[in-house]
Specification:
Length: about 800
């Protein structure tokens, strides 16, 4: 590899090899002579040569140029390209102020292509303004000169002025403009206070105010002495100052500068001190007689005295101690039983009992028949009392005890429970709360209490979910009383009309507040599930007429759907897809379905067809004689499995699979649907074949149905009926018709909206679901209609809806519409 060779201010010296070069060597011999001129007093000229195609391949030569004469401001250098460089080079010359580390103040760039052998020359001119010729370029040109018209000024010097007094201190800072809190003057001897700076007047303050000649220079000084005890008189070595230093005074005659009670001029007091500093103690003061108190009990002996103005240590004013060697013996001492005269009253143990009685149970009352004599009672003995213990083996029984209700003579007064044997609540009398019992001693034994058992509060449970309404009134029942079936021993139900809501309920995905803590379906129980239209291949592209759910399964599965041209499909469990069984029972259009507890589906369809499909085989397929289209079917498995079917010819049929169907009724109306809570009563909905008016009939056994009174618009038909219980049923039909059975009669229910209603299911009184001809699903709580649960878009009819509980609801219609709640994403 070849390198850039500086030539300085002279010519370029070329060196050649003596061997025959290769192609790479020939290319590398191609070089550039760089002539860089500059028109000012530059400090350094730098020449950079680099491969234009690969700028990271470069070489730089620097020339110190500060001392060059103005007529010689040119540097030359030779660049030989590297063997791995491309043919085109970029040459960059830069000029720097003062030195090669100074700021760049001029730059020139040229590109040269080495496409032939030999040396190419490149000239670069660098120009910058330096009016005063001091080698510093003005700041406007990228340099550092603050005044380019004065060679003596390049940068100014500034000092930190922390206290703002106009004088700075510390390390200087160079620049053109003073930074904030910097000034041009230095010399401040304390840059933290404006009280100290050159030129200030010297004050008597212990500071060098003028920053010259020391502290307080030039001021008048006086003599001061330390006053350690702050009594105004000093002592010790002299201190010269213009003003008294802290704790110093002008006098120096204190005889004890550690005691403020001693200094010249003080009055003498009785304190064993020379208060007035005249070398005498307590002189001129009156004296008294004081007596020696060796034991320190405050009483002295007459045999040892001193005359003093106050009591010396160990002496007192009194001399009545009868034993000055015992602190516990003196005229103020308390006499104790110890065989000594403790109080100096010339008596021993006066006022003390020395007879003690046995107290075996520790209740402080002794047994009269067991006593000992002495100053100190032996363990387990006590002083005599007005009454003695009647039971010294029970500490709760003694003359001081409170008589309790416990069949014991607690107070040793010869009676038992005497405070509790009279009055309205006397022990043994009968009582009622409202359950019956007698008054007995209470647990605290301080009174009586009725021992009747507590009643249990029951509350009306209208929906039968085991929890009464929060607003229900308590009804107490005693043990053994018969509790009616419509009561519960809780009252935390927030909606006692809905068996799916109660205080201790478990939240499930059913659009209800199951646990009464608001809101509904909290804690993500639905996991994203909602009303959704299914897109399984088994359901798409078919016209569905009916959906049936296994009512004897807690989950409601399997679910069967059936429709036109033999369409049949089943979902066996939650989250599964539907399986198609199209055509397994022929290609009849199925209008109604019912699912048995074994999971088989029973179908009713056009041309009088009835069938059973087990999931593997269509093992029952019959045709009703003389019947056009079968429109409804219901089954009961309480004894022998029996199905009931109705048709458009106004006939009711019963069918025990394996046997021939039996016609039970043959009337003129057109039957649309049949349903029942049990086999004791069926409801049949339809229309008058002649007048086109709604018809409702009931079947309770035998060979005929009975017509029921219902009202509705002319031209309207009842399309669907569902019996929730013997006293509750719903029917829907054309022209906004919705009816409710109360157990005795049918009455109209105000619909949620105007329209033709196609189907109803009501597994319980608060779960009444209806569909209409535009594909809307509503729910009626028995009191009010809720906002629509589902709306088809675009509007399309739904023909059937089924549910066994609010957590599994299905609706179907033509065009492959199968709607489910809740359906997971």
């Amino acid at each position: 590899m070849r390198f850039m060779k500086p030539l300085g201010l002279g010519a370029v010296l070329m060196l050649c090899a003596c061997t025959v070069p290769s192609l790479e060597e020939l290319l590398s011999d191609r070089s550039v002579k760089v002539e860089a001129t500059f028109d000012f007093k530059a400090g350094c000229i730098a020449v950079l040569a680099r491969d234009k195609a690969a700028p990271d391949k470069s070489r730089t030569t620097r020339f110190e140029a500060a001392q060059l004469d103005a007529s010689k401001r040119r540097v030359d250098t030779e660049v030989q390209r590297g063997a791995d460089w491309g043919p085109t080079l970029e040459i960059i010359a830069t000029a720097h102020e003062q030195s090669c580390t100074g700021p760049e103040v001029a730059r020139s760039t040229k590109t040269v292509t080495l496409d032939t052998e030999g040396v190419k020359t490149v000239s670069l001119a660098l120009s910058a303004v330096d009016a005063d010729g001091d080698g510093f370029v003005p700041t406007s040109g990228g340099g550092t000169d603050c005044d380019d018209n004065n060679a003596a000024v390049s940068q100014r010097t500034f000092y930190r002025d922390g206290d703002g007094d106009g004088y700075g201190a510390g390390e200087p800072m160079k620049g053109c403009v003073a930074p904030a809190q910097y000034v041009a003057r230095d010399g401040d001897c304390d840059d933290t206070t404006t009280e100290r700076a050159p030129g200030r007047t010297e004050l008597c303050d212990g500071l060098d105010n003028d920053c010259a000649n020391g502290i307080d220079n030039g001021l008048v000084l006086s003599s001061f002495y330390l006053d350690a005890d702050h009594d105004g008189a000093g002592a010790g070595p002299v201190v010269m100052a213009c003003a008294a230093p802290p704790n110093h005074v002008a006098s120096s005659d204190d005889c004890d500068d550690s005691d403020p009670q001693r200094k010249p001029g003080l009055a003498e007091v009785c304190d064993d001190k020379d208060n007035d500093c005249d070398n005498l103690v307590d002189e001129g003061l009156p004296v008294s007689t004081f007596y020696r108190d060796r034991d320190g009990d405050g009483f002295g002996t007459a045999t040892d005295t001193q005359q003093k103005c106050r009591a010396p240590t160990g002496y007192v004013v009194g001399n009545t101690d009868c034993n000055d060697n015992a602190v516990s013996v003196n005229p103020n001492a308390r006499e104790v039983c110890n065989d000594f005269d403790d109080n100096c009253r010339n008596g021993v143990d006066e006022g003390f009992n020395k007879v003690w009685y046995r107290d075996a149970d520790g209740d402080t009352y002794g047994k009269q028949s067991d006593s000992v004599t002495g100053c100190t009672p032996p363990a387990g003995y006590v002083a005599p009392t007005s009454f003695f213990d009647c039971n010294d083996s029970d500490r709760t029984v003694n003359p001081g005890a409170t008589e309790k209700c416990n069949d014991i003579d607690d107070n040793c007064m010869g009676g038992t429970d005497e405070p509790f044997t009279s009055g309205s609540t006397r022990k043994g009398d009968s009582c009622s709360t409202p359950c019956t019992g007698i008054y007995v001693c209470n647990a605290a034994q301080d009174g009586t209490i009725c021992n009747a058992p507590s009643p249990t509060n029951y509350y009306t449970d209208a929906d039968g979910d085991g929890d009464g309404a929060t607003s229900a009134t308590a009804q107490p029942y005693c043990p053994g009383q018969s509790v009616p079936p419509n009561l519960a021993d809780r009252n935390t139900d927030c909606d006692d009309t809905d068996k799916y809501n109660k205080g201790n309920g478990i939240e499930v995905c059913d659009q209800r507040d199951n646990n009464c803590n608001a809101p509904a379906d909290e804690d993500n129980v639905c996991m994203g599930g909602d009303w959704k239209a299914l897109t399984d291949p088994a359901v798409m592209g078919r016209d569905w007429n009916t959906v049936a759910i296994n009512k004897d399964s807690a989950s409601g599965y399997p679910v069967w759907i059936a429709g036109a041209n033999g369409a049949l499909a089943r979902r066996s469990g939650a989250g599964e897809t539907f399986t198609s069984f199209d055509g397994e029972c022929g290609f009849t259009t199925w209008n109604a379905a019912w699912v048995g507890n074994d999971g088989s589906v029973y179908l009713a369809g056009n041309a009088g067809k009835l069938a059973r499909y087990t999931g593997t085989a269509c093992d029952q397929l019959v045709t009703l004689v003389g019947v056009s289209n079968v429109t409804g079917i219901i089954g009961f498995e309480d004894a022998t499995l029996t199905l009931y079917a109705v048709d458009e010819n106004g006939r009711l049929h019963s069918w025990v699979p394996g046997n021939t169907p039996v016609r039970l009724d043959d009337n003129a109306p057109i039957y649309r649907d049949v349903h029942g809570f049990d086999r004791t009563r069926l409801f049949i909905a339809g229309e008058d074949g002649t007048n086109k008016a709604p018809v409702m009939e009931t079947y309770t056994g035998g060979l005929n149905t009975t017509n029921m009174s219902v009202s509705g618009p002319t031209g309207a038909s009842l399309r669907s009926v569902w019996m929730a219980s013997p006293t509750l049923a719903y029917a829907v039909g054309d022209s906004s018709m919705i009816l409710r059975w109360s157990g005795t009669s049918w009455a109209a229910v105000t619909p949620p909206a105007v329209g033709d209603y196609t189907s109803v299911c009501a597994p319980d009184s608060t779960s009444v679901y209806v569909t209409n001809a535009t594909g809307v699903i509503y729910r009626y709580t028995g009191v009010q209609w809720l906002p629509p649960l589902y709306t088809s878009s675009p509007p399309n009819p739904l023909r059937d809806i089924a549910s066994v509980n609010p957590a599994n609801i299905w609706a179907v219609g033509p065009g492959g519409r199968v709607i489910h709640f809740p359906e997971l994403p």
